[in-house]
Write a structure and sequence with these properties.
By secondary structure, this protein is an alpha/beta fold. The chain folds into two domains: 2-169, no CATH class; 179-376, Rossmann fold, CATH 3.40.50.2000. 34% of the residues lie in helices and 18% in strands. The protein has eleven helices and 14 strands. The chain has helices at residues 2-14, 48-65, 97-105, 123-132, 144-149, 153-169, 179-192, 217-227, 264-273, 285-289, 342-356, and strands at 18-21, 24-27, 34-40, 69-75, 114-120, 139-141, 197-202, 233-238, 254-256, 276-280, 295-298, 316-320, 323-326, 333-336. The strands form two sheets. The protein has an eight-stranded mixed β-sheet with strand order 9-8-7-10-11-14-13-12, sandwiched between helices. Helix 7 (179-192) packs across helix 9. The longest helix is centred in the N-terminal third of the chain and has 18 residues, at 48-65. It is globular.
Protein backbone atom coordinates (compact mmCIF):
# COMPACT_ATOMS: atom_id res chain seq x y z
CA UNK A 1 0.00 0.00 0.00
CA UNK A 2 2.85 2.40 0.85
CA UNK A 3 4.40 1.74 -2.58
CA UNK A 4 1.09 2.51 -4.31
CA UNK A 5 0.91 5.84 -2.48
CA UNK A 6 4.47 6.64 -3.54
CA UNK A 7 3.77 5.97 -7.19
CA UNK A 8 0.53 7.99 -7.06
CA UNK A 9 2.59 10.93 -5.83
CA UNK A 10 5.10 10.51 -8.63
CA UNK A 11 2.49 10.27 -11.37
CA UNK A 12 0.55 13.25 -10.04
CA UNK A 13 3.67 15.42 -9.98
CA UNK A 14 4.91 14.13 -13.32
CA UNK A 15 1.81 15.66 -14.92
CA UNK A 16 2.86 19.11 -13.72
CA UNK A 17 4.46 21.75 -15.97
CA UNK A 18 7.81 21.29 -14.23
CA UNK A 19 10.96 19.92 -15.69
CA UNK A 20 11.64 16.87 -13.53
CA UNK A 21 15.03 17.50 -11.99
CA UNK A 22 16.34 15.49 -9.08
CA UNK A 23 17.59 18.65 -7.43
CA UNK A 24 14.16 20.26 -7.58
CA UNK A 25 11.18 20.94 -9.81
CA UNK A 26 12.17 23.69 -12.26
CA UNK A 27 9.24 25.73 -13.53
CA UNK A 28 8.89 26.79 -17.16
CA UNK A 29 6.46 29.54 -16.07
CA UNK A 30 8.64 32.66 -15.99
CA UNK A 31 6.03 34.73 -14.13
CA UNK A 32 6.60 32.70 -10.94
CA UNK A 33 8.36 34.90 -8.38
CA UNK A 34 9.24 32.57 -5.50
CA UNK A 35 10.60 29.13 -4.66
CA UNK A 36 9.52 26.44 -2.19
CA UNK A 37 11.43 24.25 0.27
CA UNK A 38 9.67 21.16 1.67
CA UNK A 39 10.66 19.69 5.04
CA UNK A 40 8.83 16.40 5.41
CA UNK A 41 9.26 15.16 8.99
CA UNK A 42 7.80 11.78 8.07
CA UNK A 43 11.16 11.16 6.38
CA UNK A 44 13.48 13.85 7.79
CA UNK A 45 14.55 14.08 11.46
CA UNK A 46 13.33 16.63 13.98
CA UNK A 47 16.82 18.09 14.10
CA UNK A 48 18.03 21.67 14.39
CA UNK A 49 21.06 21.15 12.15
CA UNK A 50 19.00 19.59 9.37
CA UNK A 51 16.45 22.40 9.46
CA UNK A 52 19.23 25.01 9.34
CA UNK A 53 20.50 23.25 6.21
CA UNK A 54 17.12 23.69 4.53
CA UNK A 55 17.45 27.43 5.16
CA UNK A 56 20.79 27.42 3.35
CA UNK A 57 19.12 25.49 0.52
CA UNK A 58 16.46 28.20 0.32
CA UNK A 59 19.07 30.97 0.18
CA UNK A 60 21.03 29.16 -2.55
CA UNK A 61 17.97 28.51 -4.69
CA UNK A 62 16.82 32.13 -4.34
CA UNK A 63 20.18 33.14 -5.80
CA UNK A 64 20.04 30.51 -8.53
CA UNK A 65 16.53 31.34 -9.66
CA UNK A 66 16.79 35.10 -9.06
CA UNK A 67 13.83 35.43 -6.69
CA UNK A 68 13.50 37.16 -3.33
CA UNK A 69 11.12 34.86 -1.46
CA UNK A 70 11.12 31.24 -0.35
CA UNK A 71 7.99 29.53 0.98
CA UNK A 72 8.61 26.77 3.52
CA UNK A 73 6.34 23.75 3.73
CA UNK A 74 6.60 21.63 6.89
CA UNK A 75 4.88 18.24 6.87
CA UNK A 76 4.06 15.82 9.67
CA UNK A 77 1.58 13.00 10.17
CA UNK A 78 -0.74 13.74 13.09
CA UNK A 79 -1.40 10.06 13.86
CA UNK A 80 2.29 9.10 14.07
CA UNK A 81 4.50 12.21 14.08
CA UNK A 82 7.57 10.22 15.23
CA UNK A 83 7.76 8.00 12.14
CA UNK A 84 10.93 9.48 10.58
CA UNK A 85 13.25 7.65 12.99
CA UNK A 86 12.83 5.24 15.89
CA UNK A 87 14.89 7.54 18.14
CA UNK A 88 11.92 9.93 18.23
CA UNK A 89 9.53 7.28 19.49
CA UNK A 90 8.15 8.41 22.83
CA UNK A 91 9.78 11.81 22.38
CA UNK A 92 7.69 13.32 19.59
CA UNK A 93 3.96 12.66 19.91
CA UNK A 94 0.57 14.16 19.09
CA UNK A 95 0.63 16.28 22.25
CA UNK A 96 3.92 18.08 21.59
CA UNK A 97 4.33 17.99 17.81
CA UNK A 98 3.22 21.62 17.35
CA UNK A 99 5.51 22.78 20.16
CA UNK A 100 8.49 21.06 18.53
CA UNK A 101 7.55 22.29 15.07
CA UNK A 102 7.16 25.86 16.35
CA UNK A 103 10.61 25.70 17.95
CA UNK A 104 12.16 24.69 14.63
CA UNK A 105 10.22 27.41 12.85
CA UNK A 106 11.91 30.08 14.99
CA UNK A 107 14.99 29.49 12.82
CA UNK A 108 13.07 31.27 10.04
CA UNK A 109 13.73 34.52 11.96
CA UNK A 110 17.31 34.29 10.71
CA UNK A 111 16.40 33.88 7.07
CA UNK A 112 15.83 37.10 5.20
CA UNK A 113 14.15 35.35 2.25
CA UNK A 114 11.34 33.69 4.23
CA UNK A 115 8.01 34.09 2.47
CA UNK A 116 4.93 32.11 3.49
CA UNK A 117 5.12 29.21 5.91
CA UNK A 118 2.77 26.23 5.64
CA UNK A 119 2.38 23.43 8.19
CA UNK A 120 0.47 20.34 7.04
CA UNK A 121 -0.53 17.51 9.36
CA UNK A 122 -0.76 15.00 6.53
CA UNK A 123 1.50 14.28 3.58
CA UNK A 124 -1.41 13.82 1.17
CA UNK A 125 -2.73 17.27 2.08
CA UNK A 126 0.72 18.77 1.43
CA UNK A 127 0.92 17.00 -1.93
CA UNK A 128 -2.46 18.40 -2.97
CA UNK A 129 -1.31 21.93 -2.10
CA UNK A 130 1.92 21.49 -4.07
CA UNK A 131 0.11 20.11 -7.11
CA UNK A 132 -2.57 22.81 -7.09
CA UNK A 133 -0.06 25.66 -6.72
CA UNK A 134 2.90 24.28 -8.57
CA UNK A 135 2.96 26.99 -11.27
CA UNK A 136 3.38 29.70 -8.63
CA UNK A 137 6.94 28.55 -7.92
CA UNK A 138 10.12 28.93 -9.91
CA UNK A 139 11.62 25.91 -8.16
CA UNK A 140 10.54 23.39 -5.53
CA UNK A 141 13.12 21.51 -3.48
CA UNK A 142 13.53 18.59 -3.08
CA UNK A 143 12.62 17.24 -6.51
CA UNK A 144 9.72 14.84 -6.90
CA UNK A 145 11.91 11.70 -6.85
CA UNK A 146 13.67 12.68 -3.62
CA UNK A 147 10.46 13.98 -2.04
CA UNK A 148 8.57 10.79 -2.84
CA UNK A 149 11.37 8.42 -1.83
CA UNK A 150 12.25 10.40 1.29
CA UNK A 151 15.90 11.01 0.40
CA UNK A 152 17.85 12.32 3.37
CA UNK A 153 18.11 16.05 2.64
CA UNK A 154 21.31 16.60 4.62
CA UNK A 155 23.33 14.70 2.03
CA UNK A 156 21.39 16.10 -0.92
CA UNK A 157 21.93 19.70 0.21
CA UNK A 158 25.62 19.26 1.04
CA UNK A 159 26.55 17.13 -1.96
CA UNK A 160 24.42 18.80 -4.60
CA UNK A 161 23.29 22.33 -3.78
CA UNK A 162 26.11 23.56 -1.55
CA UNK A 163 29.00 21.98 -3.43
CA UNK A 164 27.88 22.92 -6.92
CA UNK A 165 26.87 26.46 -5.93
CA UNK A 166 30.14 27.14 -4.10
CA UNK A 167 32.29 25.75 -6.92
CA UNK A 168 30.47 28.00 -9.38
CA UNK A 169 30.09 31.18 -7.29
CA UNK A 170 32.91 30.89 -4.72
CA UNK A 171 30.65 32.02 -1.87
CA UNK A 172 27.65 30.84 0.15
CA UNK A 173 24.78 33.09 1.27
CA UNK A 174 24.47 33.37 5.04
CA UNK A 175 21.71 33.42 7.60
CA UNK A 176 21.32 36.87 9.18
CA UNK A 177 19.39 37.54 12.42
CA UNK A 178 16.52 39.97 11.97
CA UNK A 179 16.51 43.39 13.63
CA UNK A 180 14.54 42.20 16.66
CA UNK A 181 17.05 39.42 17.35
CA UNK A 182 19.98 41.79 16.84
CA UNK A 183 18.52 44.24 19.35
CA UNK A 184 18.07 41.40 21.81
CA UNK A 185 21.64 40.10 21.42
CA UNK A 186 23.09 43.62 21.81
CA UNK A 187 21.29 43.92 25.14
CA UNK A 188 22.33 40.41 26.20
CA UNK A 189 26.00 41.09 25.48
CA UNK A 190 25.95 44.41 27.29
CA UNK A 191 24.25 42.94 30.36
CA UNK A 192 26.11 39.62 30.65
CA UNK A 193 29.41 39.86 28.74
CA UNK A 194 30.60 43.38 29.52
CA UNK A 195 34.17 44.01 28.39
CA UNK A 196 35.01 40.38 27.69
CA UNK A 197 35.15 38.61 24.36
CA UNK A 198 32.02 36.46 23.91
CA UNK A 199 32.75 32.85 22.91
CA UNK A 200 29.88 30.42 22.38
CA UNK A 201 30.23 26.78 23.38
CA UNK A 202 27.84 24.06 22.26
CA UNK A 203 27.58 21.37 24.95
CA UNK A 204 25.81 18.07 24.29
CA UNK A 205 24.94 15.97 27.32
CA UNK A 206 22.01 13.80 26.17
CA UNK A 207 21.70 10.54 28.17
CA UNK A 208 19.03 9.07 25.89
CA UNK A 209 20.27 9.38 22.32
CA UNK A 210 23.69 9.26 20.67
CA UNK A 211 25.65 9.25 23.92
CA UNK A 212 28.85 8.67 21.92
CA UNK A 213 28.41 12.25 20.64
CA UNK A 214 28.15 13.75 24.13
CA UNK A 215 30.65 16.33 25.33
CA UNK A 216 33.45 15.29 27.66
CA UNK A 217 32.36 17.43 30.60
CA UNK A 218 35.44 16.76 32.76
CA UNK A 219 37.72 17.99 29.96
CA UNK A 220 35.62 21.13 29.46
CA UNK A 221 35.68 21.87 33.21
CA UNK A 222 39.46 21.57 33.30
CA UNK A 223 39.73 23.83 30.25
CA UNK A 224 37.35 26.49 31.59
CA UNK A 225 39.24 26.55 34.90
CA UNK A 226 42.51 26.96 33.02
CA UNK A 227 41.15 30.05 31.23
CA UNK A 228 40.03 31.86 34.41
CA UNK A 229 41.97 35.14 34.81
CA UNK A 230 44.21 34.24 31.85
CA UNK A 231 41.97 35.38 28.98
CA UNK A 232 39.39 38.20 28.77
CA UNK A 233 36.74 35.75 27.59
CA UNK A 234 33.24 34.89 28.74
CA UNK A 235 32.01 31.49 27.58
CA UNK A 236 28.31 31.31 26.69
CA UNK A 237 27.25 27.67 26.91
CA UNK A 238 24.40 26.64 24.65
CA UNK A 239 22.60 23.43 25.55
CA UNK A 240 19.23 22.04 26.61
CA UNK A 241 18.41 23.17 30.15
CA UNK A 242 18.17 19.58 31.41
CA UNK A 243 21.70 18.94 30.08
CA UNK A 244 23.44 21.75 31.99
CA UNK A 245 26.27 20.08 33.95
CA UNK A 246 26.19 21.03 37.64
CA UNK A 247 29.97 21.10 37.88
CA UNK A 248 30.18 23.95 35.36
CA UNK A 249 27.64 26.22 37.04
CA UNK A 250 30.09 27.56 39.64
CA UNK A 251 32.71 28.77 37.16
CA UNK A 252 32.97 32.59 36.98
CA UNK A 253 33.87 32.71 33.29
CA UNK A 254 30.95 30.55 32.14
CA UNK A 255 27.28 31.45 31.71
CA UNK A 256 24.43 29.34 30.37
CA UNK A 257 22.13 30.81 27.76
CA UNK A 258 19.16 28.81 29.07
CA UNK A 259 19.46 30.53 32.45
CA UNK A 260 18.12 33.59 30.62
CA UNK A 261 15.15 31.73 29.06
CA UNK A 262 16.57 31.88 25.55
CA UNK A 263 14.75 30.43 22.56
CA UNK A 264 16.44 28.58 19.71
CA UNK A 265 16.65 31.56 17.36
CA UNK A 266 18.25 33.65 20.12
CA UNK A 267 20.87 30.98 20.75
CA UNK A 268 21.72 30.87 17.06
CA UNK A 269 21.99 34.66 17.14
CA UNK A 270 24.47 34.36 20.01
CA UNK A 271 26.60 32.06 17.84
CA UNK A 272 26.43 34.53 14.95
CA UNK A 273 27.58 37.36 17.25
CA UNK A 274 30.29 35.55 19.19
CA UNK A 275 33.97 36.11 18.47
CA UNK A 276 34.31 32.39 17.79
CA UNK A 277 32.54 29.12 18.51
CA UNK A 278 33.60 25.79 20.02
CA UNK A 279 31.87 22.59 20.95
CA UNK A 280 30.01 19.47 19.99
CA UNK A 281 28.78 18.45 16.59
CA UNK A 282 25.18 19.05 17.54
CA UNK A 283 22.37 21.00 15.85
CA UNK A 284 23.33 24.63 16.61
CA UNK A 285 26.85 23.99 15.29
CA UNK A 286 25.37 24.28 11.78
CA UNK A 287 24.95 28.01 12.44
CA UNK A 288 28.72 28.24 12.85
CA UNK A 289 29.42 26.14 9.74
CA UNK A 290 27.68 28.72 7.58
CA UNK A 291 28.80 31.79 9.49
CA UNK A 292 31.74 34.18 9.16
CA UNK A 293 33.48 33.65 12.50
CA UNK A 294 36.14 31.08 13.45
CA UNK A 295 34.98 27.79 14.95
CA UNK A 296 36.31 24.43 16.02
CA UNK A 297 33.93 21.48 16.30
CA UNK A 298 34.69 18.18 18.03
CA UNK A 299 33.48 14.70 17.18
CA UNK A 300 32.23 15.38 13.65
CA UNK A 301 32.22 11.78 12.47
CA UNK A 302 32.77 11.43 8.75
CA UNK A 303 32.34 7.67 8.49
CA UNK A 304 29.45 5.35 9.18
CA UNK A 305 26.90 7.75 10.65
CA UNK A 306 23.87 8.33 8.43
CA UNK A 307 23.17 11.71 10.05
CA UNK A 308 26.65 13.18 9.78
CA UNK A 309 28.76 11.54 7.08
CA UNK A 310 29.53 13.37 3.86
CA UNK A 311 29.28 11.24 0.77
CA UNK A 312 31.10 13.58 -1.59
CA UNK A 313 34.77 13.59 -0.58
CA UNK A 314 35.52 16.88 -2.35
CA UNK A 315 33.42 18.70 0.26
CA UNK A 316 35.95 18.01 3.00
CA UNK A 317 39.66 18.75 3.06
CA UNK A 318 42.12 17.36 5.61
CA UNK A 319 44.35 20.23 6.73
CA UNK A 320 46.24 18.42 9.52
CA UNK A 321 46.17 15.04 11.21
CA UNK A 322 42.49 14.39 12.04
CA UNK A 323 41.72 18.06 11.43
CA UNK A 324 39.42 19.02 8.57
CA UNK A 325 37.66 21.91 6.88
CA UNK A 326 34.78 22.20 4.44
CA UNK A 327 35.60 23.42 0.95
CA UNK A 328 33.59 26.57 1.72
CA UNK A 329 35.09 27.21 5.18
CA UNK A 330 36.64 30.58 5.98
CA UNK A 331 39.70 31.51 8.00
CA UNK A 332 39.91 29.67 11.32
CA UNK A 333 36.94 27.39 10.59
CA UNK A 334 37.72 23.71 11.12
CA UNK A 335 36.68 20.54 12.90
CA UNK A 336 37.95 17.17 14.06
CA UNK A 337 36.53 13.68 14.27
CA UNK A 338 38.20 13.35 17.67
CA UNK A 339 36.48 13.94 21.04
CA UNK A 340 37.54 16.74 23.35
CA UNK A 341 40.71 16.50 25.41
CA UNK A 342 42.18 19.22 27.59
CA UNK A 343 45.17 19.63 25.26
CA UNK A 344 43.01 19.78 22.12
CA UNK A 345 40.64 22.27 23.73
CA UNK A 346 43.53 24.52 24.72
CA UNK A 347 45.19 24.36 21.31
CA UNK A 348 42.03 25.04 19.31
CA UNK A 349 41.07 27.88 21.69
CA UNK A 350 44.49 29.51 21.44
CA UNK A 351 44.52 29.26 17.65
CA UNK A 352 41.23 31.17 17.46
CA UNK A 353 41.91 33.55 20.33
CA UNK A 354 45.18 34.66 18.68
CA UNK A 355 43.16 35.50 15.57
CA UNK A 356 40.77 37.83 17.40
CA UNK A 357 42.69 39.10 20.44
CA UNK A 358 43.74 42.35 18.75
CA UNK A 359 40.26 43.09 17.43
CA UNK A 360 38.18 45.76 19.08
CA UNK A 361 35.62 44.62 21.58
CA UNK A 362 32.18 45.40 20.27
CA UNK A 363 30.68 48.64 21.54
CA UNK A 364 27.11 47.50 22.02
CA UNK A 365 24.39 50.03 21.31
CA UNK A 366 22.58 51.20 24.42
CA UNK A 367 19.00 50.29 23.59
CA UNK A 368 15.93 52.01 24.84
CA UNK A 369 14.86 49.83 27.81
CA UNK A 370 11.45 49.39 26.20
CA UNK A 371 13.11 47.85 23.14
CA UNK A 372 15.61 45.61 24.84
CA UNK A 373 13.45 42.50 24.65
CA UNK A 374 11.84 40.89 21.66
CA UNK A 375 8.84 42.73 20.22
CA UNK A 376 6.80 39.54 20.00
CA UNK A 377 6.73 39.21 23.78
CA UNK A 378 3.97 41.84 24.16
CA UNK A 379 1.35 39.38 22.88
CA UNK A 380 -1.24 38.29 25.46
Amino acid sequence: MKHIKKYKSIFRLLKSPFKSLRGGFSNTNFSANRIMIIYDTTRQPFAVGDFILTQIAGLINCHKFKVDLCDFVIVYESKSPDMSDSVFSGVVDRDNILLITTSLMSILNLNQITGSVFVFNSKSQAERYIYNNITSYKNIFPGFIDFTLGTYLNHLIFNDLIYSFYVEKNFLPKLVPNKSLQNWVNHFMREHIGHSFPVTVNIRNNPNWGIERNSKIAEWKKFFEYCIDKFPVKFIVICVKSEIPDELKILPNVIFAKDYQTELDQELTLIANSKFHMGANSGPAAMAYFGSNPYFIFGLNLIGNKYSDFLFSSLVQEIAKKKFKFIFSGLGQSFTSEPETFDLLCQSFLDMFNMIKDSDKVSYVKNDPLKRNRKDLWIR
